[in-house]
Amino acid sequence: MHCLTTPPTNLSAALGEPVRWCLASDLDPTGNYGRSFLLLGPSAILSGDTAGARLRVPLADIKEFVLDELPGKVRLVARQADGDRVLISASPELAQELGGACRALEAARNGGEPVLPEVQPARDPATGEPLRERGMIRPKRSPFSTLGRLIGLLGPHRRRLSLLMALTFISVGAQLVPPLCFKAITDDVIGHGHVEALPWLITVMMLSFIAVSAARLFANRQNLFLSLTIVGEMRTRVHRKLQRLRIVYHQQHESGELIGRVSHDTGQLQHFLVDGMPWMLVNLVSLLVIGAMLFTLDPILALAVLVPVPVFVFGSVFFHNGMMEWWHRMSNRVSRMHSLLGESIRGVRAVKSAGQEERRAAEFDRINGQMVAANYGGERTWQLFMESATFAMAIGTVLVWAIGAWRVSTTGTSGGPSLGTLVAFVGYMAMFYGPLQWFAFVINWFAQAMTGAERIFQVLDQPEEGGAADSGEPFAAEPGRGVALRFDGVHFGYERGRAVLKGITVDIEPGTMVGLVGRSGSGKSTIINLLCRFYTPDAGRILVDGKDLSGLRLSDWRRQVGLVPQEPFLFNASIAENIRYAKPEADFAAVVAAAKAAHAHEFIMKKPDGYDTIVGEGGASLSGGEKQRIAIARAVLLDPPLLILDEATSAVDSETESKIQEALERLVRGRTTIAIAHRLATLRRSHRLVVIDEGHIVETGTHAELLAKTDGLFAKLAKTQVELMQVMSLSGDLAPVHDGVSVMGDGVAGDPLANLVRNGDRLAWKDGEKPRPVRLAWYRPLSARGSDLAVLDEKGKELARIDRPDDLANGAGRLVSEEVRLRYGDTKIERIAGIRFDQGNRFLDLVTDRGNRTVLVRQVERNFVWQADGSALICDIAGNRFRLPAMHQLDADSRRRLEEIL
Question: Is the model's pLDDT at 137 over the cut of 50?
Fold first, then answer.
């Protein structure tokens, strides 16, 4: 659904001023599935539902609007001096909409224009069903429409296709001759003694057999070429598409699944195209032509031949959907096995160092066992259909012989067929049943191929990052100058509206070096990702030499950027090829010069094969520092106008770092450089430092200027030298307190839960004059709720741990119980009303304690989290959470439907 809507009349009146826009949610104020509204006016906001207004707040009374993401829910909160107020709640699938509304409300509070960003829908507006990918509204395709799209790939090969069809018709026509010769031999040669016709009939039969064999040979060669060419083109298209898809798509899909799309799914397609497609055309034409011949010879016997046809037709329809679902399940499990195998190979050092070889082998055996079980079930279903079809054909054969023999034996009185006609008819019957039986076989191939094609087309239909690489305005920076950059009110969040950058505005002059400083998770790397156009800002814009970055030709821009990441990736090729990767046309002398500038030449020449040394997969044969120096050499060789250093010297020793810093000083001249480093001393030669904290720019200045601000964040970071990850140690210093509470050893004294208070609509921790907002979080919210509950402040610091929250009986216990119910109030499933399968996805129609809901799950293994008591937590693709009772607590219909997908 789209969130913008027309406000109810009663709420418009309650606002008391013109409505600038109205936002609709999919949850009512009580948390049930329904409708609630948020209205924005020139000076106030109002929330409520059709029953009436719930809250009206002047904009002047609000300090900040924040998005509060809970497990299975998201809330828009107004922060006021006397506490926080929840304005509106929604399911997680509308988090992007609420995130955009939060930014728009902040703009309105600061006197700006509250423009809501365009957001792709999470559900199909026509059906209300959840979408597989946000904004990707695709009609449900039948396998035959997928087949039509597949056949459309034959367009560039019309000539070969025309030749293939001509050869097919020749083959089918030649097949019709031998049975007619059998009839003539039986009736004329044997029956009437016309021996002189026998040589001619034998010659015609031999010529027809030669024609059939020759036509099939050349047709098979044509089809083999067409099929392998199409599969090769498809494999290339999928690989090329994967390279151009957005980074977020790769983050949402396992590497094993994507590898399966290129290898396994195209392999399924190849089997069908090579062994199935040509025979499909031949057998379809054969059925039509031979069927006509049967009715020409004897209509009564022809009806007997058609007895098994209904079995094939209805059986195909009945078994097809099951086979499609089975192959989708098999493909998912093959992808899962690919992922597990890839992890085992890439992580072999971690597995061996932890002594977990047997555990890893057992996990692989489990996935492999699931594949074997699923394969057995599908093959058993298909064999049942095949045996039923074969038995039906046997009945048809018996009927033809019985009726035909009786009619031939009584030909004198009934005018029935001759013996030669019966012989010819039986020959045509065998030719008719052959293709018919083949179509029974091909149901399995067809389901397999259409499953692969659907999964391939799902990838090909995905939108590419920032449009096509060759679209947009051409761009080339002025040589020797660098580029001017401006971040203009940039907001961005990686997932579901959670903001990482919150209105970043900063100017970077061309040819200058700017260092980004901040705690881990403050947004430094996110700025780099936006500059590289791996992502697009949710709001605001990035200007390059006065031009909007999103409007520049992507391929041109990427050539202007040299990135040295913290964990560089090297390809399984020589050192020279890896250095030359971003500039393949560079000569060897330039490669050596770049390596010397990055202080990599010395260690390269110590290796037996020098620059020809193969580095192994991911640079496995090199140390971390060596890989970083090769990455720096790659950037030096590219000679970009914008250089980005993301912890570029984090894996080298101090002596090497000093040398690289000297090289980088020469490298940054005449170009714009942005550097990230946690060792802050490495940034002291930057022209300017930008300090970021929680998505905001809090300080700017030179290294010396910021150090002089002793109360500033940079000075504090420089003093404490916070490393990449701040790890809170839980060993020791845990003192047991009453009611199962443990307090971190940070000086908190007395009863810690006495500090918990309600501040507006949110929980707060009062250990000073002003309460500070806190939240409760289970240590293991999916697998083990009921024990180990943490009290966290807004920065994630743990203030207390509650071991057994159910044992709390005082006033704080009531607050904890209410907050847990608010934050982790999963929707409880009362009944499963229906389950539908579509292209490997499962749509569950649920009846819950909050109303009816249709949810989408992809893999039972991933979306169902089973508990020790037999219940399960269902997490759909949008982040909604549903509590499923144990199997024995469900009604009979719900149990049966659940067993279908388990």
Answer: no
Which element (helix H / strand E) includes 778? Answer: strand 772-778
Instruction: State residue 543 phi and psi, 5-degree precision.
Output: -105, 135
d(C-alpha 582, C-alpha 632), whole Å? 12
For residues 579 and 443, membership in a common domain is answered with no
Distance of CA 391 to the CA centre of its chain: 45
Other residues' Cβ atoms within 10 Å of the Cβ of residue 852: 11
CB atoms within 10 A of CB 692: 22
Residue 785: closest CA among 867, 862, 706, 724: 867
Q: Phi first, then psi: what are they for 199, rounded to 5°?
A: -60, -40
**CATH number where 193 lies:** 1.20.1560.10
Asked if residues 465 and 245 have their Cβ atoms less than 8 Å apart, the reply is yes
* φ, ψ of residue 841 in degrees (nearest 5): -100, 150
Q: Does one domain contain both 575 and 435?
A: no
Residue carrying the six token digits 């009185």 = 413
Could you give the 3-state DSSP secondary structure of residue 881? strand
Shared domain for 538 and 399, answered yes or no, is no
Q: Distance of alpha carbon 356 from its chain centroid, rounded?
A: 29
Cβ atoms 650, 629 nearer than 8 A = no
123 found inside a domain: no
Edge-to-edge strands, sheet with 62-70: 62-70, 73-80, 83-90
| Interval 49-80: pLDDT, tens | 888 889 999 999 998 888 887 777 888 989 88
Does residue 122 fall inside a structural domain? no
Instruction: State residue 653 phi and psi, 5-degree precision.
Output: -75, 170
pTM of the model: 0.69
Examine the pLDDT at 462 and tell me if it is beyond 60. Answer: yes
Strand pairing category for 513-518 and 672-676: parallel
Residues 368 and 432 in one domain: yes
Three-state SS for 30-69 is: CCCEEEEEEEECCCEEEEEECCEEEEEEEHHHEEEEEEEE
Report the side by side order of strands in the sheet with 688-693: 561-564, 642-646, 672-676, 513-518, 688-693, 696-701
Closest CA to 439 of 328, 320, 324, 329: 320
Same domain, 799 and 843: no
In a domain, 375, yes or no: yes
> To 10 degrees, what angle do helices 198-244 and 177-184 make?
160
**Closest to 175 (Cα-Cα) out of 230, 221, 215:** 215
Residue 514 burial class via C-beta count within 10 angstroms: exposed 0-12, middle 13-18, buried 19 and up:
buried
Give the chain's end-to-end CA distance (angstroms, integer).
30
Which amino acid is present at 729?
S
State phi, psi for 707 to the nearest 5 degrees.
Answer: -65, -30
Q: Does residue 610 surpass a pLDDT of 70?
A: yes
Beta-strand relationship, 513-518 and 688-693: parallel
Helix or strand holding residue 832 (H, E): strand 827-838
What is the dihedral angle through the alpha carbons of 392, 394, 395, 398, rounded to the nearest 10 degrees?
160
Distance CA 777, CA 96 (A): 23
Identify whether residues 792 and 833 lie together within a single domain: no
Q: Which long-range contacts (CB under 8 A, 24 or more apart) does 885-889 make?
A: 885/828, 885/829
Tokens of 233: 């083109």
Range of the domain at 20: 9-109
109 Cβ neighbours under 8 A, 6+ residues apart: 59, 62, 64, 65
CA distance 595 to 599: 6
Q: How far apart are CA 400 and CA 591, in angstroms?
A: 80
- Residue-wise pLDDT tens digits, 171-209: 777 877 877 777 777 777 777 777 777 888 888 888 888
Residue whose pair of structure tokens reads 């090729």 in the numeric block: 573
The verdict on 368 and 254 lying in the same domain is: yes
Q: b/e for 221-245, b at 16 or more Cβ within 10 A?
A: ebbeebbebbbeebbebbeebbeeb
Better-predicted residue by pLDDT, 831 or 317: 831
